[in-house]
Design a protein that fits this description.
Blueprint (H helix, E strand, L loop, with lengths): L6 H25 L1 E2 L10 E2 L4 E2 L6 E2 L4 E3 L4 E2 L4 E4 L13 E3 L4 E2 L4 E4 L3 E3 L4 E2 L4 E3 L1 E2 L15 E2 L2 E3 L4 E2 L4 E2 L4 E2 L4 E2 L4 E2 L2 E2 L3 E4 L4 E7 L3 E3 L16 H31 L1
Parallel strand pairs: 2-5, 3-6, 4-7, 5-8, 6-9, 7-10, 8-11, 10-13, 11-16, 12-17, 13-18, 16-19, 17-20, 18-21, 19-22, 20-23
Antiparallel strand pairs: 1-3, 14-15, 23-24, 24-25
Length: 261
């Protein structure tokens, strides 16, 4: 037998769902951290237009964290300076993030010593950057109880760090570098390079004399010219669909003629 639909119950559920979504949107807007509304956080610097999305990850040592302007810090992003909260780390910033940086959801930047991220860097979700690594010199002591090693990290401007990448202590990444998803980076990476793997290795590099080596497999995308309106783009898309349909019809006609022969 068909199940009777409870219209009133369905209506109440939709209403409750809308209320929950509206309330959560308000919580996200209200809980986000900006220079104008820092809440309990007292960053060493936070630029205009920068926003830390709510809910936040672990954040401490903020007096030694300097955030540039127009940065987007995703939900559940960890930003820490120092080994633990409430330490006096001296007069200089420990974690420096330049202008226009995007840190994807769930990323971690753990700066127990100096970490610098250049301007216009884009991080995918769940990237892990740490200036500290465990040591295992003493074979008789648990690794977690041995004093860790610390080395500064520098990430140059304009880099793209893929989802799930790990940047280890001592990494020196040049400008406009692509770090492939899931890579583990240590050591020095030159400018204008693509690195991939664990440990990450250079798989492609650009130089003024030779360009990209190995050569790129696809042509670069063509940016939209200035002054083009949304209506013109829609019309162009419709033309592309018509052209694709004509090509498909032509291909079918050729196949049909070939079959008759």
């Amino acid at each position: 037998m068909p199940t009777r639909k409870n219209t009133f119950s369905s209506w109440r559920r939709r209403l409750a769902q809308r209320a929950v979504h509206a309330a959560w949107s308000w919580v996200q807007r209200t809980g986000s951290v900006t220079a104008e509304h820092p809440g309990r956080f007292r960053f060493g610097a936070i630029g205009t237009g920068t926003r830390l999305a709510f809910p936040l990850g672990t954040v401490f040592g903020e007096p030694w964290i300097h955030l540039g302007a127009h940065c987007i810090i995703g939900e559940q992003v960890t930003l820490t300076a120092g080994l633990m909260p409430d330490l006096d780390l001296g007069p200089d910033p420990i974690l420096r993030i330049g202008d226009g940086v995007v840190l994807g959801r769930g990323s971690h930047v753990v700066a127990d010593t100096s970490v610098t991220i250049g301007s216009d860097c884009y991080f995918g979700p769940y990237v892990y950057v740490t200036s500290t690594n465990h040591s295992y010199d003493d074979p008789h002591q648990p690794i977690g109880k041995q004093w860790p090693r610390m080395e500064p990290i520098e990430i140059g401007p304009g880099c793209w760090i893929g989802t799930g990448a790990v940047i280890l202590p001592g990494a020196r990444i040049g400008r406009n570098v692509v770090v492939a998803a899931g890579s583990v980076v240590r050591g020095k990476v030159p400018d204008h390079a693509v690195v991939a793997g664990a440990p990450a290795r250079v798989v492609r590099r650009w130089t003024p004399d030779e360009g990209w080596q190995p050569p790129l497999r696809t042509p670069p995308p063509v940016p939209i010219p200035d002054g083009v309106t949304s209506e013109q783009l829609i019309a162009l898309g419709e033309l592309d669909e018509e052209a694709a349909a004509r090509l498909a019809a032509l291909g079918e006609a050729q196949q049909s003629r070939g079959a008759r022969r």
